[in-house]
């Protein structure tokens, strides 16, 4: 099953992100119900690995902490592919990410050694953006690039299953792991 571990945004944060997205006039926006901060993308995993991972994550220890979403940015350089809202990489968030990676290693899932860039994806763009879309994205960033959402408390993480469809991915919560520091 294709899956990932993430911080699910609370309803109020989802609504605030959705209000921000409403001003974007380009790209394919992430539906409100799919907004999350990915801690680890696991790709396709067999059931026996997910069972072992579930057992390991059930023992995960982390304290609740505040998550701050602040400032817009893009992945893709001169050919932007993803618009996102940055998450402040606090020590608590970085520690949670480290603990999640350790739990993954313990069940045989190795994560790429790339730098953790915590974010919430707002929209995706085709490689062949037309000039009008590029201008719209630039205008959106100029007007709202310094967006800051009120902090919210992270009290759990979730394991999601993800099914791809032509109209977009559908995410389903498979398990949740509460904070308990």
Automatic annotation (TrEMBL):
One of its GO terms (molecular function) is RNA 2',3'-cyclic 3'-phosphodiesterase activity. A motif (HXTX 1) lies at residues 36-39. The keyword Oxidoreductase does not apply. It comes from Shimia gijangensis. This is RNA 2',3'-cyclic phosphodiesterase. HAMAP family: RNA_CPDase. It comes from the Bacteria. NCBIfam families: 2_5_ligase. The active site is at 36 (proton donor), 119 (proton acceptor). Hydrolyzes RNA 2',3'-cyclic phosphodiester to an RNA 2'-phosphomonoester. A motif (HXTX 2) lies at residues 119-122. Its EC number is 3.1.4.58. Keywords: Hydrolase, Ligase. It catalyses: a 3'-end 2',3'-cyclophospho-ribonucleotide-RNA + H2O = a 3'-end 2'-phospho-ribonucleotide-RNA + H(+). Belongs to the 2H phosphoesterase superfamily. ThpR family.
